[in-house]
Amino acid sequence: MLRVKTPQKARARRELEKRAPKLIETGKKTLILHGMKTSAVLNAVLSDIYHLKKESAVKFSRRNKDVCPFENGGETSLEFFSHQTDCSLFVYGSHTKKRPDNLVIGRMYDHHIYDLIEVGVENFKRMDSFSYDKKLSPRVGSKPFICFIGDGFDNVEELKHLKEVLLDLLRGEVVEKLNLAGLDRVYLCTATSSKKVFLTQCALRLKKSGTVVPRTELVEVGPSMDLVVRRHRLPNDSLRKEAMRVVRDQPKKDKNIQQDTLRGKVGKINIPDQKVGDSFVPNKTKGVKRERREAKLKKEEKEGTEHASKRQKEDAE
Amino acid sequence: METETQFQVDLGNLMAVDLHHQFHSIPSSREELVKECIAKGTELVQAIANNLFNLPSTEDIEGPLVKLPPPTTRLPREKHIPKPKPPTKWELFAKAKGIKNRKKDKIAYDESSETWKRRYGYDRANDEDNVPIIEAKMTDVPGEDPFAKRQQDKKKRVEKQDKNRLQNLKQAAKVGALPSHVQLAATRLPITGTQAAPQKVTKDELGDVAGIAATATASGGKFDKKLPGEKPGKHKGKYRTVCFLPVIGGKGIHTQEQEQTDKILNKLISKNSHEMLNVNKAVNMYNVKKDKKRNNRPEKSSATSSQLKPRKNLQKKPYNKGSSKPFDKGSKKPFNKGSKRPFNKGSSNKGRGK
């Protein structure tokens, strides 16, 4: 026995609809959490990342014991949190002797782990420690410019993966219309070696130049850190194929329409074959029914034979 | 979009990649590195901006709005592509028959009140449920209430509709296209006739039951291996919270046990003893016990035996819960045993129960 359960309040219904899968996706939310032990550096890193993504991030403040992204069983907690908060990106920080200042950045597909990359943070400088003209500071939620410098991003597999993940993490919402006045931040990622990436945030200053295009100037503003790639896990091929599927909007083709100078716009109408048997004829007329037809035929035959027999009898007599 | 030979620009993401830059020599100091990166970054951003500002822009209040092209770098989706909902039974039928849905107005004209009322909801137009008079037809059965019949018919129609809705949702769930706000939950089969509400078992109840199950072994669950993280049971062996007091001891005249009994007796015999002890009830209980004893013995034939005297107050009096508390809170001795003491001159409890 099944019964239909729907939310009693309209607000709950709206929330559920927001979380439903959509054809075209705009922004991913990020979950920021940490494990049993963190260092001062790591705390600062996590809070800075949260500030960068204020509107589209959720930060957990308590320690989490069971989270081990790279192990088989340790993903269940993460998947549960992802489901609860509707986040498809997560940043998990932990500090151990073997892996100090460790960050695991991962993505989810359908609230199951899609891929992971583990980086160590070195030479971290907080947002507060930079001194600059406060008028230039980037506003929360503005769409950033992202720059990747270095051939390592093409040659080294880990760096390729890191580039994709960083792009996903930093890019924000996918918008169709952009206000050019609101562009004020740039993320720079430079591959300094085959394992290290230098990441920093700069404020953008647009200066007048002769043409429509302004001259750009960068001032280092935000957190800067060195990311050292430690381990990574790529998704399986089948999962990757499924996740990369693109919904194509079919362009409307104007079929059966022709333009003619003599006749003007001419359209062609194709009428399919009429299905006599399957059509929904509401009342089957009495004469059409097969039994009646057959009965009629039989009756006629009978009469015919009777007449014949009668005539025979008469003849006989 | 490749504008310059070095950079790859993805306008939809406002991203630029410079793949040809090589760090031939890692700069000596960190500041140098930072400077170099910023310089390179400026070039890249300039490249993006060149493309961006050349797009056709519309003037808005806040600034020039530009329509961005879709991003070229492919990134994985966050959720699966939603499956289209399969058509419902009615939709299939309507399509085959060619029935089109006509948009109806919210307001309709009500003939009985000759006003415009809403089509659905409270006080609706042409409402069939609230007619004052139903004309009798030749086909009507004499004993039947037509108003009740109408209500029952409506109920049946609604039930049928719910059933059809459930079937449609089940079909959708099979394909995987259940609407986001709907969940199909399994219900418990009702016990025939009764409307048993589904009981939610609380954590404490579960803990109690688990404890009972754990101690249901020959050794009371003492030697069983516990699962990791399982807490030891709450109710441990000792059920007697008050220990027996030592009989001998103490320098004073009274031992602890004597003191306890003295306390109780004083309370009973004191001025307020009628509040503590329900004398009538005690007498009744004593008499009833005596009767039982007598009945167990071989019966004597005479109905007018001297022992069988009519007794008063055979009804039980209400037990005064508020006042009858002769014992301290700590002790768990049942009340009736205490009341027996002043009357229990000869017979002891051992003599009962043959």
TrEMBL record, chain A:
GO cellular component, one term: nucleolus
Keyword Methyltransferase: no
A GO term, aspect molecular function: rRNA binding
InterPro entries attached to this UniProt entry: Brix, Rpf2
Region entry Disordered, spans: 242-317
GO BP annotation list: maturation of LSU-rRNA from tricistronic rRNA transcript (SSU-rRNA, 5.8S rRNA, LSU-rRNA); ribosomal large subunit assembly
Occurrences of domain Brix (ranges): 28-238
Pfam families: Brix
Superkingdom of the organism of origin: Eukaryota
Basic and acidic residues composition bias: residue spans: 242-257, 291-317
Keywords: Nucleus
Location(s), subcellular: Nucleus, Nucleolus
Family statement drawn from the similarity comment of this UniProt entry: Belongs to the RPF2 family.
Protein name per Swiss-Prot or TrEMBL: Ribosome production factor 2 homolog
Organism from which the protein derives: Rubus argutus
From TrEMBL, chain B:
Keyword GTP-binding: no
Keyword Nucleus: yes
UniProt feature, compositional bias: Basic residues: 309-319, 332-343
Residue spans of biased composition, Polar residues class: 345-354
Region of interest (Disordered), residue spans: 64-87, 142-162, 285-354
InterPro entries: Ribosom_reg
GO terms of biological process kind: endonucleolytic cleavage in ITS1 to separate SSU-rRNA from 5.8S rRNA and LSU-rRNA from tricistronic rRNA transcript (SSU-rRNA, 5.8S rRNA, LSU-rRNA); ribosomal large subunit biogenesis
Keyword entries, A-Z: Nucleus, Ribosome biogenesis
GO cellular component: nucleolus; preribosome, large subunit precursor
Pfam families membership: RRS1
Places the protein is found: Nucleus
Free-text function comment from the UniProt entry: Involved in ribosomal large subunit assembly.
Family designation: Belongs to the RRS1 family.
Annotated PANTHER family: RIBOSOME BIOGENESIS REGULATORY PROTEIN, RIBOSOME BIOGENESIS REGULATORY PROTEIN HOMOLOG
Protein name listed in UniProt: Ribosome biogenesis regulatory protein
Organism this protein belongs to: Rubus argutus (Southern blackberry)
